[in-house]
Amino acid sequence: MRAYHARSKHRFAAYAEGPGQLDWDAQPAAFRHYPGAPVLELPLSADRFERPYGRLPEKPEKQITPDLASLGALLELSFGLSAWKSWGPNRWALRCNPSSGNLHPVEAYVLSAGLPGIPAGVQHYDPENHALEGRAAVATGDKPWLAVGLSSIMWREAWKYGERAFRYCQLDVGHALGALGYAAALLGWEVVPLAVDASTLQHCLGLDRPEDFPPSRYAFTEREEPEILVALRAPGLQLPPAGDELIGWLRDASWHGTPSRIDAAPGYRWPAIDQAASASRAQRSTTQKVAFSPLPPLAPPPAPLGAAALIRQRRSAQRFDPKHSLGKTAFYRLLDGVLPRPQAPWLAQEAPSRIHLLLFVLRVDGLASGLYLLPRTPAAAGTLPAALAPAEARFAQQRPVAEFDANCPQHLGLIQLCTADLQELQRLARSLSCHQDIAATSAFSLGMLGEFAAATVDAHGYRELLREAGLVGQALYLEAEAVGVRGTGIGCFFDDPVHELFGVDATRYQSVYHFTVGLPVNDARIETGPPYPQRCKEPA
């Protein structure tokens, strides 16, 4: 996995291996369907459960038990469509869970038993129609439980991004887990990662069935990589069966449907992605314990926005207003929102927190432009600042922001590494993020620094590190919306030059994801339509 990570780095001299050209009329199918499977249309019910975004850590006044309506809301706000966009003859969907290039490799499956109105078994979620496609039917009679399994169709990302696509798929899994965690929190539920090895999960999602996924010359385009299984902790539910019991639950299942094709005529193949996937599959039968440090509650957002409305309005900004400055209070609250607490989305985390933020502060009112550091754990707060200092004399005057700004929360732990001229800082931010203006015209941008050596003690830890980065990205997306601005994930950046700028020991740390936040400039030429126009008259 370390070799794959090094191989897939972008460098100033050359980008990682990718396709020589793209035929946008022949991109992989955005949606997978299972023709022949029984279809259960889900209600568009999220508005029934609406409550303020700032109150998600609290339980709803009335318990919400899992049924068809609540499951519909959960899936609508995690993996469902949020809008259709059109420009001239082109039309494309947006989803509540973001994705690199809007390519959406993640597929979601519902595994359940004993829930009213929901057939027991395995069902594929169809986001295009907000429906469940019944893949495997099992006998009823079990005590009620509910789980969601995620897989990745890696060709959707590889088609555009080449060898780096495995990274992006794992970031997208993290985003998807975050989206599921926030949607569950709206209902007062929690997402709990389960220890299921890759072969068991593959079997339970029906991804090892040769009649559905036959070996062929183009099998790599159709294959779904098993990623993770999570349980929903909700009133009246118990945890799903584990390991052999889960396989036994499906022993006499009847399977239905045939997967639709994703790409019948791919132009490239990237063996490094298959090798990375094979090497990093989960082999564990136990979960890691994730401990959370005590932190004060997050301050309420400036406007009492509804959680469902905020989740639906989330977008990836394409351009920013280069004259806009972000208020300091909003900036601090936004950063506070990415500190791990025992609430959504961090309860979905598989491993201890190992992602920290290297910040390019460009335009924040009352805060000098410059380079900043946000360690996200007490352990990193004690070791990471010193790890940057020896190689960079300009960081010798680093100091906690709370020492010179009374408005900065003491627990935030934000550190000013050095101040910098705004134009020079913009040049740095732009050049390090593959020369993209969105990294320089925003209020601030950042690189997510991962504890690479600690995370890659085993190969699956590499997936966990990237997924945590995606989880942090999902928190940044929603916290940005909550304070009236917008974020954008940046998967394209020059890895080692980031390390050189900050004096990072690349054997211990690696930059794994970039992000940028500012005031968006919307393109008036692009029209926005409802996510499910065929069901607009359906009552909430």
Give structural attributes:
8-stranded antiparallel sheet, 16 helices, 18 strands
How is the main sheet built? Answer: 8 strands, antiparallel
Helix content: 25-40%
Number of helices: 16
Shape label: globular
How would you classify the helix and strand content by structural class? alpha+beta
Q: Overall mean pLDDT score?
A: 94
What would you report as the Rg, rounded to the nearest angstrom?
22 Å
Proportion of beta-strand residues: 15-25%
Provide an overview of this structure.
The chain has 16 helices and 18 strands. The chain is of the alpha+beta class and 540 residues long. Helix 2 packs across helix 4 (165-186), helix 3 (155-161) crosses helix 4 and helix 4 packs across helix 15. The N and C termini lie far apart (47 Å).
Per-chain topology:
Layout lengths: L1 H6 L31 E3 L26 H11 L2 E7 L2 E6 L10 E8 L7 E6 L4 E7 L7 E8 L2 H7 L3 H22 L3 E4 L4 H7 L14 H4 L2 E9 L10 H6 L4 E2 L15 H9 L27 H7 L14 H9 L18 E7 L8 E5 L3 H11 L10 E2 H4 L10 E5 L2 H11 L11 E8 H4 L4 H23 L3 E5 L4 H8 L6 E10 L8 E3 L11
